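In line with agreed milestones, the collection of sequences with tokenised folds has grown. A representative record is reproduced below.
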Amino acid sequence: MNIVEIQVSEELKSERIDKVLSTSNDEWSRSQVQIWIKDGLVKVNDKIIKTNYKCHVNDNIVVTIPDPEPLDVVPEQMDLDIYYEDQDVLVVNKPKGMVVHPAPGHLNGTLVNGLMAHCKDLSGINGVLRPGIVHRIDKDTSGLLMVAKNDMAHESLVQQLVDKTVTRRYKAIVHGTIQHDHGTINAPIGRDKVDRQSMTVTNVSSKEAVTHFHVLERFENFTFVECQLETGRTHQIRVHMKYIGYPLAGDPKYGPKKTLPLNGQALHAGILGFEHPRTKKYMEFEAPLPKEFEQVLQDIKNNR
């Protein structure tokens, strides 16, 4: 364990203890500090306090930082397609067919296994099975993901997702020919009451979900589109496109059985943009379509 002492200065008086601590160290997120306080690891003038404690000038704060919890996930050497990396964030292009993080019964071969072998410093906010993971894409969706390497970065990136300032643009092939060039789908998504493994548009126990799309190219029986997420619900694009009558090609859960020869939905997270947590500079990355996606698209063009 590591013990840190902090003296409260004049400019920090009357501030909450969790805010004082999170602003005193860039590596300490407010949520992590609150956990330490609830676990009795923070004392003010030798007394255990609550998260809403208001600091006074010359308060002596002692923080006992616990040793990192050992991870149950085994690091695995992988040939990861890293687009960007520094001390705070990492951007990786996930291949189709790879699960993002371990789950009970599926602890190996995930992106997290590979990330743990690539770098030892990943944020711990999401627990031992999802270190560093800020957002996810489905197993059979390829494309760009941002990963947090410390809690400060994690908290910043999550807040940007909440504030809807992260750019997330996907390329997709859908069944049917969409006649209008642009559209916005604003329909809440929740768990399907009949099939609990699926999501659906519903007003029952649902959350706001907004997807913008525009047509890139039309074919006789398919449309190539770009979708931009305003929110990030589970299976959002897949559910929304099915809802308006244009399900994703190859989608085994939400699409028709007769579809294109794909192993999973034709969906690629091609563009990702966000504000760097430390420098505050906007950064944007673009990953090309995977070869399988490109080949299917070319076959459609040849058979139009």
The radius of gyration is 23 Å.
